């Protein structure tokens, strides 16, 4: 049954780890606004990204499909159906505002949107290679003012994506002073730290890795403030009470938990475990069911009472009692060593409850982790766990589907 609300707003925050949120146990007060929303929301504790970076994860978030479903990645395949296309055909107004080049109109992500801003015509700088959240919010509020007119408007779906947590981790001093006022790095020093460590994948100096993480935490706080500004504007325009708001991220970031930095072709929890809350739905509370971001598009459609697209891989998360987990799957390739990605260096994961198995076909290498006993994924138990062969049997048929796509 659809939840009777007028609008649905999807807020995605790039590269935001679940463990940065107070509502997931962080005690540094990096996300006070989102934490306050979570108290009156459905909070998913086991949301899994479909991949560890934007290109691999966003097919799940907006098309309910997996990265390699249609062969070698590149421009968005015409075989994928965006949630915006389904909603627009159903008479729902659709609007998108973001600043991620991998999700640009030139890459095919502008299908089905009545309004689509991707910032590709705007100038950016190396130290700030995206449009900040306050500018994104200004564009959203201007669109709302124009669209709503005298208050008589059709239901809308709004997607807003914030890039402000993303590297190169060069926050303004006003945000530094809020989170880590003891930091004295100037912007050039911050950028040099990024170039020397993140770009080179150099984790040899723990103090520098810790400094990078502290800069990242500052940007988490900044993004939380932008979410607060967005929802406050919606409330001021009398829109928020008539809207369901979904807040999540596409993936996380690594700070040497598994020997590297940033977000590359790995499938560990710092990249795959993502936050997810649904605010202003008819239910609230904690949901411990294992879910996937491929479930987001069907959920959005159900909130409007619209049927999902044929071929979508996910199912609506609502109502919660009707959702039965089938496990979570994800895939990626090495996108750094070869232009367009190295298909021979592919990786897959499958999670069922607290067991997760990873597979790299080119090396025929398996890893398996018992997340309850080993939450940091440090002990590969694939050779000893009694369910290893069962888990291998589930995952292996999904590997290298791209050979026949």
Your description of this structure?
Helix content is 28%, strand content 20%. The chain is of the alpha/beta class and 405 residues long. A hairpin with a 7-residue loop joins β14 and β15 (342-352).
* Structural class computed from helices and strand pairing: alpha/beta
Low-pLDDT windows of residues = none
Q: Which H/E pattern describes the elements?
A: EHEEHHEEHEHHHEEEHEEEEHEEEEH
Percent range for β-strand residues: 15-25%
Oligomer class:
single chain
Q: Sheet with the most strands?
A: 8 strands, mixed
Structural domain tally: 2
CATH topology of the largest domain: Alkaline Phosphatase, subunit A
Question: What's the shape?
Answer: globular
Taking all Cα atoms into account, the compactness measure Rg is 20 Å
Q: How are the strands of the largest sheet arranged? A: 5-4-6-1-7-11-2-12
CATH superfamily annotation of the largest domain: Alkaline Phosphatase, subunit A
- The count of strands amounts to 17
CATH architectural label of the largest domain: 3-Layer(aba) Sandwich
What labels describe this entry?
405 residues, 28% helix, Arylsulfatase, C-terminal domain, Alkaline Phosphatase, subunit A, single chain, 2 domains, eight-stranded mixed β-sheet, four-stranded antiparallel β-sheet, alpha/beta
Please outline what is shown here.
By secondary structure, the protein is of the alpha/beta class.
Topology:
Layout (H helix, E strand, L loop, with lengths): L6 E7 L18 H7 L2 E4 L2 E2 L5 H10 L19 H7 L3 E5 L17 E3 L15 H16 L7 E7 L10 H7 L7 H13 L6 H31 L6 E7 L4 E2 L5 E2 L6 H4 E2 L1 E4 L5 E3 L3 E2 L3 H9 L23 E7 L7 E11 L2 E6 L4 E6 L17 H8 L10
Parallel strand pairs: 1-6, 1-7, 2-12, 3-13, 4-5, 4-6
Antiparallel strand pairs: 2-11, 3-10, 7-11, 8-9, 14-15, 15-16, 16-17
Helix pairs in contact: 4-7, 5-7, 6-7
